[in-house]
Amino acid sequence: MKRMVEFTVNGEAREMAVDTCRSLLDALRDDVGLTGTKKGCDVGDCGACTVLIDGEPVNACLVLAVEVEGRLVETVEGLQPGVEMLHPLQDAFMRHGASQCGFCTPGILMMAKKLLDDNPRPTDEDIRFGLSGNICRCTGYTKIFDAIRSAAREMEAARS
After folding, report:
1. How far apart are CA 153 and CA 121, in angstroms?
2. How many whole angstroms separate alpha carbon 58 and alpha carbon 101?
3. Which of 72, 62, 143 lies closest to 105, judged by CA?
4. Measured distance between the N- and C-terminal CA atoms of the chain, rounded to whole angstroms
5. How far apart are CA 140 and CA 142, in angstroms?
6. Beta partners for 53?
7. Dihedral through CA 74, CA 76, CA 81, CA 83, nearest 10?
8. Which has the closest alpha carbon to 76: 121, 122, 111?
9. Tens of pLDDT along 32-63?
10. 73 and 53 in contact (C-beta within 8 Å)?
11. pLDDT tens, residue by residue, 80-122
């Protein structure tokens, strides 16, 4: 059974017919064409599919697409403020080599964005807790923490 769903993704209004049992992850990737959000475990354990709904992080694999009716969805593609401009987190991840295979990176970036939105000066403990739902099998997290700390400093300097 299909149902029409209207929502906003990365600032763009969307309307689409979706199966009532289709996950938001599959709808974003297959129907909307936003493939930055990754399908890792498909059971909510790895965080690779993290997106923000109304500013709150969720595992898109655990949310039905019909549940975003009238809501704001932000994916990793929405982080970039302009064609020639990266979000400070994206820039810091590149400079610090924080992504190796890159599979977990979109989910970690979205969690880090939420973390820095709520807490512009996170401690290492804050970062560790903020990323506790995101698994990276390549980096060991040190470079990820370095990148988040660096982006936090840059974002704070830009606000000043």
Report:
1. 8
2. 22
3. 143
4. 52
5. 6
6. 56, 73
7. -130
8. 111
9. 999 999 999 999 999 999 999 999 999 999 99
10. yes
11. 988 899 999 999 999 999 998 989 999 999 999 999 999 999 9
> Are 133 and 111 in contact, with CB atoms under 8 Å apart?
yes
Residue pair 113/52 in contact by the 8 Å Cβ criterion: yes
Contact by Cβ (8 Å): 104, 68? no
In sign, the C-alpha dihedral spanning 37, 76, 116, 150 is positive
Scan for tokens 């370095």, then name that residue: 146
Residue labelled with tokens 């949310």: 63
pLDDT at residue 83, rounded to an integer: 87
**CB–CB of 96/148 below 8 Å?**
no
In this structure, which amino acid lies at residue 85?
M
Judged on CB neighbours under 10 Å (0-12, 13-18, 19+), 99 is buried
CA distances from 14 to 9, 52, 61, 108, 123 (A): 7, 16, 19, 25, 38
| Tokens matching residue 150 | 């660096």
Pairing of strands 72-74, 2-9: parallel
Query: SS3 for 151?
Result: helix
